[in-house]
Amino acid sequence: MTERTLVLVKPDGVERKLVGEVVVRIERKGLDLVALEMRTVDRELAAQHYAEHDGKPFFSSLLEFITSGPVVAAVVEGPRAIAAFRQLAGGTDPVEKAAPGSIRGDFGLETQSNLVHGSDSPESAAREIKLWFPSL
Ligand code: GDP
Ligand code: MG
Question: Cys-Cys crosslink for 118: which of 21, 85, 91, 135, Cβ 3.0 to 4.6 Å?
Answer without folding.
Answer: 85
